[in-house]
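Tip: read the tokens left to right.
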């Protein structure tokens, strides 16, 4: 058995460099406002991953949404004409300000989510998967519940009772719970990814990484950002992953394709997506 003294120095320098970079990045971000305000209750920010491959300089883009000013909608092709649409098409047809994948779809049924998915009386997938540990829930049955929640089935007691008190429920793979990484060992597969999360102040986060990262590394990146993410779940990977928003004359469609051209905000229509989570501005 090799001694620890022979193994540790090989990695000590690497750990020190990564720790320094993460600390330096946090200090740099803390010196200025990282968020660009799009509207009241809606902000956007982009970050350079520390661990991104040299061949790809894609950013991690995060749209921060305040539920006090925006309502959330779950739109399923199985409920709306059995027809998938691009995010832009979903947004235009249903007057959405922003939208993101609601979850991965099944190989045998492209309209059905891999985990439980319900929107009011419409059931897209009535089966709760034991492999998927996160729920994103919104549109509460009554005003005693928060407008939105992320529920971790491994740590929240009575989670079935909680999701039953919401009209819109989406189940997917958990990434972060209570501010900590959950699962996702390093397996080597790298791709662009979309995720939905929440921060410590109750904002909802629509996130898209256009850098080729394993989910293991992406989680570490997200936790290192000065965004204070407490919960997150994985909703799609590869070119099907997408993020859309439109405010005024500015319209952006980001898709899960790595690009070195950081000036490009619009990258075409993207793939047709069967299930999306969208937002609308509340009328007060």
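Filled-in amino acids:
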């Amino acid at each position: 058995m090799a001694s620890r003294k022979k193994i540790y120095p090989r990695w000590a320098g690497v750990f020190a460099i990564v720790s320094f970079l993460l600390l330096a990045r946090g200090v740099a971000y803390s010196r200025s406002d990282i968020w660009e305000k799009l509207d009241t209750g809606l902000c956007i920010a982009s970050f350079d991953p520390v661990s991104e491959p040299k061949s790809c300089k894609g950013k991690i883009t995060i749209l921060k949404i305040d539920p006090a000013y925006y309502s959330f909608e779950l739109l399923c092709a199985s409920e709306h004409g059995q027809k998938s649409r691009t995010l832009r098409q979903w947004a235009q047809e249903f007057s959405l300000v922003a939208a993101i994948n609601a979850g991965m779809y099944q190989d045998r049924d492209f309209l059905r989510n891999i985990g439980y998915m319900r929107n009011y009386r419409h059931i897209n997938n009535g089966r709760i998967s034991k492999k998927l540990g996160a729920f994103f829930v919104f549109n509460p049955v009554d005003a005693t519940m928060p407008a939105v929640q992320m529920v971790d089935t491994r740590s929240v007691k009575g989670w079935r009772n909680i999701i039953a008190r919401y009209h819109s429920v989406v189940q997917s793979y958990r990434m972060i719970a209570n501010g900590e990484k959950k699962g996702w060992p390093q397996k080597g597969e790298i791709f662009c990814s979309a995720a939905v999360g929440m921060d410590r102040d109750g904002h909802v986060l629509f996130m898209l990484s256009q850098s080729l990262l394993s989910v293991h590394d992406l989680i570490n990146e997200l936790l290192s950002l000065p965004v204070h993410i407490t919960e997150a779940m994985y909703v799609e990977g590869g070119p099907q992953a997408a993020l859309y928003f439109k405010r005024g004359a500015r319209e952006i469609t980001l898709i899960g394709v790595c690009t070195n051209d950081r000036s490009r905000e619009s990258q075409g229509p993207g793939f047709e997506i069967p299930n999306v989570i969208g937002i609308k501005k509340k009328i007060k």
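The radius of gyration is 19 Å. The first strand starts at residue 36 and ends at 39.
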